[in-house]
């Protein structure tokens, strides 16, 4: 099998790649201005905005196109010097689900093309689309503008359907076909991990030469261990969030939907109560997030589950946290749990570790990269609540082991940063631009109907 390329690693080569002046970033279904943990907003929102800021700091202007979902927002918002979010009107401002958005892609594409048409020719040097819906728009825009398309899937339908949570809805065939089309048409495909790269190649027949691995990062200034004694820091953070000052805290942070599997954590605490009721009565499970996807069908399902299992007294629900409250929650926790059935990377795991909190995660997708097993946390094969209960029952009372994992978590997270991600993407952008220019030169030399065979 062909060797995978790593965007971060290739920038060390001697060849200087061209650098874009301006890029158009496409994010149809969710705005980077939305609060992560609600609706369809999650790690992708964080990724797009953080990368855009770092690219702008490196001298690359970024314009992010997203669908307008409120009449209160101005057409264009400058989020940082060199970073603008443009709201494109396409369909009703409210009431559309992600599954209904394919019907609005023509309107969205028209808005993107009109925005470019109002600029001088050649305004954008490159398009970077995120998620398959944006890839469909990027596919047309790249043909109209004559620029390369770089695409990041973030999640893949074939992978999600192969690892579907019980009771969850499979991704529709239309999405699978749409992803296959984007994979074929994109000049470069950016995978978050080598696992995702292999999925693109093995499940979607992507050309390995066009697949690059560029790992996401974390804001190491915002997410970091707080100075001072860890126990005192945790107590202060718990007081700030209204959590018990004593006992153990295990936190789940993310959108509440079957794919993210927060129910596994609640079932695990119920199983722990059967195994060790004294320990279980010292555990508080924090579920932080809002319903999303098929989780909107029964937004109170987790509360009902906790009541049915007899652990409602051990479960605390918090809305998505903003500002300094999210790092505070990570620092308040003894462990952060990420029991997802699939994650293209798992930014929550990285944020928690950057704060010095070990992570217990399912050994799926990008989590095997985001969490270093037995060094920064523990990976669990499968989603059996009994296995999760055994792991929690072993780790929580073992203070010394958790302290070792906490130190390993902070060290591991320092290997990732958004500056590193942006640098890797610049390499991929440069390769895409260089290949595009070479193809144009070949067509000029040989004629558009054929390419030269040198």
pLDDT average, as an integer?
Answer: 90
Query: Number of helix segments?
Result: 17
Strand line-up in the sheet with most strands: 1-9-8-7-6-2-3-5-4
User: From the alpha-carbon coordinates, what is the Rg to the nearest angstrom?
Assistant: 23 Å
Helical content, roughly?
40-55%
- Shape descriptor reads elongated
Total strands: the figure is: 15
How far apart are the termini? 26 Å
Q: Report on the biggest sheet.
A: 9 strands, mixed
Per-chain topology:
Layout: E1 5-6, H1 7-10, E2 22-27, H2 43-57, E3 61-67, E4 76-80, E5 83-88, H3 105-117, E6 126-130, H4 131-145, E7 149-152, H5 157-162, H6 173-185, E8 188-191, H7 194-204, E9 211-213, H8 230-241, E10 248-253, H9 262-275, H10 277-280, E11 283-288, H11 301-308, E12 315-318, H12 325-332, E13 335-338, H13 347-354, E14 359-362, H14 367-370, E15 377-380, H15 385-395, H16 399-413, H17 418-446
Parallel strand pairs: 1-9, 2-3, 2-6, 3-5, 6-7, 7-8, 8-9, 10-11, 10-13, 11-12, 13-14, 14-15
Antiparallel strand pairs: 4-5
Helix pairs in contact: 2-17, 3-4, 4-6, 8-12, 9-15, 13-16
């Amino acid at each position: 099998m062909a060797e995978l390329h790593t965007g971060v690693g290739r920038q060390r080569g001697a060849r200087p790649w061209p650098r874009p002046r301006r890029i158009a970033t496409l994010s149809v279904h969710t705005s980077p201005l939305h609060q992560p943990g609600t609706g369809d907003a999650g790690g992708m929102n964080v990724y797009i905005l953080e990368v855009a800021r770092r690219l702008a700091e490196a001298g690359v202007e970024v314009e992010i196109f997203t669908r307008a979902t409120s009449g209160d927002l101005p057409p264009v918002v400058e989020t940082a010097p060199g970073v603008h979010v443009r709201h494109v009107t396409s369909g009703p401002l409210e009431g559309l689900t992600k599954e209904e958005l394919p019907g609005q892609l023509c309107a969205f594409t028209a808005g993107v093309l009109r925005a470019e048409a109002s600029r001088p020719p050649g305004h954008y040097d490159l398009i970077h689309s995120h998620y398959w819906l944006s890839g469909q728009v990027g596919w047309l825009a790249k043909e109209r503008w004559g620029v390369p398309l770089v695409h990041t899937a973030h999640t893949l339908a074939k992978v999600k359907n192969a690892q579907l949570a019980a009771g969850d809805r499979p991704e529709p065939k239309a999405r699978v076909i749409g992803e296959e089309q984007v994979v074929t048409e994109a000049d470069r495909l950016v995978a978050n991990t080598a696992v995702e790269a292999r999925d693109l190649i093995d499940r979607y027949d992507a050309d390995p030469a066009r697949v690059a691995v560029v790992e996401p990062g974390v804001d190491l200034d915002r997410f970091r261990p707080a100075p001072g004694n860890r126990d005192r820091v945790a107590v202060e953070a718990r007081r700030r969030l209204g959590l018990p000052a004593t006992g153990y805290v295990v936190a789940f942070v993310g959108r509440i939907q079957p794919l993210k599997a927060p129910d596994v954590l609640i079932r695990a605490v119920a199983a722990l109560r059967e195994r060790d009721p004294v320990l279980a009565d010292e555990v508080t499970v924090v579920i932080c997030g809002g319903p999303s996807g098929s989780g909107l069908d029964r937004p109170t399902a987790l509360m009902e589950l906790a009541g049915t299992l007899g652990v409602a007294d051990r479960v605390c629900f918090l809305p998505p946290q903003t500002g300094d409250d999210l790092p505070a929650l990570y620092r308040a926790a003894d462990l952060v749990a990420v029991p997802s059935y699939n994650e293209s990377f798992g930014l929550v795991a990285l944020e928690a570790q950057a704060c010095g909190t070990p992570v217990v995660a399912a050994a799926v997708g990008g989590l095997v990269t985001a969490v270093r097993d037995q060094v920064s946390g523990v990976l669990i094969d499968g989603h059996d609540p009994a296995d999760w209960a055994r792991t929690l029952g072993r780790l929580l009372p073992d203070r010394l082991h958790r302290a070792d994992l906490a130190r390993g978590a902070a060290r591991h997270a320092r290997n990732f940063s958004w500056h590193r991600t942006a640098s890797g993407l610049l390499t991929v952008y440069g390769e895409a631009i260089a290949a595009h220019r070479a193809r144009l030169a070949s067509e000029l030399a040989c004629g558009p109907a054929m390419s030269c065979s040198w």
